[in-house]
Structures are given as C-alpha cells and as structure tokens.
Q: What sequence folds into this?
DNA sequence: ATTTCTCTACCTACTAGTAGGAAGATAAAT
DNA sequence: ATTTATCTTCCTACTAGTAGGTAGAGAAAT
C-alpha cells in the first residue's frame, strides 16, 4: 500500500470530497486547483471536461465499492455480519467525516440535470448495490439467519432506501449517531427469531 | 382558489421547481428570468439575494407543509389513514412529476454549503415533520391501531428516512412506482395485528 | 405625489474550456 | 555516448459565457 498518489488520483480524491459536500454543481475546476496546488488548465489536461471527470470519478467509486462489497462477502461468513459490516462502514465514514455521504446518493438527487454518462453510472451503482444486498439477504434466508416478509429484491430496495435516507437525516440534523439509530432497527427486523 | 399569482409567488414557484430538479447551485436568476419573462434585475427587487430567496421559499414550503399535515390530522380520524394520506400525497407528486422530490430533502443533501439561514430552515422542517409523524404514531398506538417496536420518536425517524430514501431511489431508477413499493411495507409493518 | 414595480445597462467575479509553449523524462537513432 | 525526437505534465494567458448583484431611469399604481 504505497502512499504515492498520482496527480489525476489527487484530482479525483478532492473532486469526490467536493461532490459529497455540494454535488455536481457545487464545485469547480478552480476549487480543485486551489486544493491541490495545480493550475486549472492542468486539470483539463487530465480530464478534458467536467462531465468526463465526474464520469471517471463515479466509475472509480463503483469499482472501489464493488471490490469492498466483494471482500465483505468473502471475508465474512455470516450474512448478518456482512450486512452489519456494510452498515458499520458507513457509520464510521459519517462519524469521522471521511466520506459522510455516498457519492452516488448525492448525484442521484441531481439526476435530472446530470450529464447522461454520469446519470447512467449512478443508476448502475444503485443497481449493483441493490443486487449485492439482495444476494446477502437471499443467502441469509437460505441459511435461516434471516426471515423476510417480502422477496429479497424488495427487501434490498427497502434497506438501501433506509441507508440513504438515514445518511440524509444524519446530515440534516448534523448528528452522525442518527444514522445507526435509523439503520440498526431495520437490520434487526430481518433477523429470524432464534 | 384564485389563480392570480403575484410576481413574487411566480418567482418562488419556478425557483422551487428548479431547486427540486437541481438543488441550490442548480439554478440561477437567469433561469427564473427566462422561465417567467421578467428581467433578472426585477427578481432582485423582490428577493435581493439568492440566499434570501431560498430562505423565503423554504419558509413558504414549511408553512404549506404544516398546513397540509394539520389538515390531514383534522380531516382524517384514523392515524393509519393519516399516514397513508401523507404517503399518497408524495406518491402522486412523484407520479405526475408535479413535485417529484421534497425541497428540504434536496437541500439537506447540500447542507454543508448552504447559507446558514437556509440550513436552519431545513433542519426546522425535518424536525417538525418528524414531530408530526411521531404524534400520529403515538395516537395510533394509544388507540391500538399501531404496535411499535421502538419509541414513536424513533419510529418516526425511521419512517421519515424511508420516505426520503424512497424518493431518491425512485429518482435514481426513474421509476415512480418504486417509491410506494419501498414505503408501503414500512407502514404495513407498524400496523397492529387485528 | 409617492410608493411599487420593471426596465436598460452595467459591474465584478467566476464558469468551463482552449491555445501554445516550457521543462523534464524517456526512448530511438546516430 | 550523444544527439534527436516524442511524450507527459504543467504552465501562462486567454476566450466566451454566466454568476449574483447594482444604479438609476421610466412606468404604473396608490
């Protein structure tokens, strides 16, 4: 794990934190320029247009997420604990303000005015996250850990919405603890009586 | 119900629809100007600054919401149906795209870079909405309509997060039906067994 | 007659994006 | 080994357009 970060990665990193804070229209090349000490034009060398920058950024985010979720499924045996780990990840992100909001949740709220490239990336993220959650729920049901009222796919949508809604509430109230207070009962509800 | 809309109300109407579509940074005085056929400078006469415009807008939204929720509580006797009416309201808004997202949910996602006036208004809305939901849940519990796992206040937070998360999912997937598919089971879950 | 509204005309700061070149590293050709 | 050419990265300087906001004149309503 080297800490050498290429310029383009630094650009993506700061752009990501700016998007999480203020969305697509909430940041500019000048903001990135000021943050990493490089001229605006140099950013255009790495990412010709803003739409392309954000598209690459969301692509990277999706890949990181995919990798992270995959390693959760491989590293943790119990579906209940896989779900718990996913939620805990976001809980710490929100608590220490490292990534206090999902990039795609942020962009999804601006869906109507996003470049089509970015919009379809965001849809893709929502789709694969819902898919991961559904597969965890299905595995847990087959093993008797979970007892679901609805189909795994539908429960996954409900859970995903709760997580995103909880992020929003935590942000609105400025209270990181609210995230887990909302999400934890939603997970507990899925657990089969022992 | 008169259809005479003052200029300042027309400004607020179009600004609201623009905010719902793209957030605080997603619209400009020029956009409003083009939409209602008035010069930019004339908008500044009614609302000197953008922060003030949005602050008034959110104030009006809060008041409309307060009035609407109050009339639901007064016009409908059953708490379960009050809740249903609230959800149905949003379902139709999303379906016919008249107000396909809560103004305050939109702004909450941008909380970190909102003018303080606006931010506190948004917090206020979340607080009073959560309060309304909690009081409906409490009334329903006392009358035996609802059977809650947690305190009414906590269940209200969970429900509010589900509603906002469901709005986001519906928008992300471009599927209005997803809203009710997510929210309906969350309400059903609160119902006491007959 | 005064207040309310809308206008033209303008300002400064900032937006994304471009043109063209300089510095340095790398690779190829001599 | 040294020249030559190429590639990458970053720079200064610039463009056209848009941002929020202002000053002041002219209507319109009270």
A:
């Amino acid at each position: 794990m080297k800490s050498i970060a290429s310029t383009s990665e630094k650009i993506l990193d700061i752009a990501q934190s700016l998007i999480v804070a203020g969305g697509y229209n909430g940041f500019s090349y000048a903001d990135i320029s000021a943050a990493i000490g490089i001229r605006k034009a140099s950013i255009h060398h790495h990412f010709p247009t803003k739409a392309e920058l954000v598209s690459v950024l969301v692509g990277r985010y999706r890949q990181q997420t995919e990798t992270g979720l995959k390693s959760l499924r491989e590293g943790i045996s119990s579906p209940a604990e896989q779900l718990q780990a996913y939620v805990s990840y976001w809980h710490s992100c929100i608590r220490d303000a490292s990534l206090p909001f999902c990039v795609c949740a942020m962009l999804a709220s601006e869906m109507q005015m996003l470049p089509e490239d970015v919009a379809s990336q965001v849809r893709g993220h929502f789709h694969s996250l819902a898919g991961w959650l559904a597969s965890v729920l299905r595995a847990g049901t087959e093993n008797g850990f979970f007892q679901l009222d609805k189909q795994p796919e539908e429960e996954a949508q409900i859970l995903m919405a709760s997580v995103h809604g909880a992020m929003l509430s935590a942000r609105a109230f400025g209270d990181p603890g609210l995230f887990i207070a909302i999400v934890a009962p939603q997970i507990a509800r899925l657990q089969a009586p022992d």
